[in-house]
Design brief:
Elements: H1 14-21, H2 26-34, E1 37-42, E2 52-57, E3 62-68, E4 71-76, E5 79-82
Antiparallel strand pairs: 1-2, 2-3, 3-4, 4-5
Length: 85
Amino acid sequence: MSDSSHLLDLTSQAAAVQRLLRGRSEPDKLEWVAARGRLERVATAFLNARPTYRFVSTVGMECVFFINGDEFVFIGGHTTFTVNE
C-alpha cells in the first residue's frame, strides 16, 4: 500500500496501514488517515481515555478507533480489537 493508496475501509485494511505508517508519530498517522476520508475526534466518558476518533471513508465505511503505539485499536460491538498482521 503506497502513500497514494485509497482507504476504503480502515478496519479491513488496518494491517497494511499499520505496516505503512509504522514508526511515524501519532499526528502523522492521523494526518494520513484524514487525507483519505473524514476524521473527527469523539468525546469519551472515561477520564484519562486516549484520544478517540471516528473515521468515515470516501465510500461511507465507518469505524471508531484510538492509536496505541503502531496499532489501531478499534471500538465496536461492546469490545475493542486490533488487527494482527
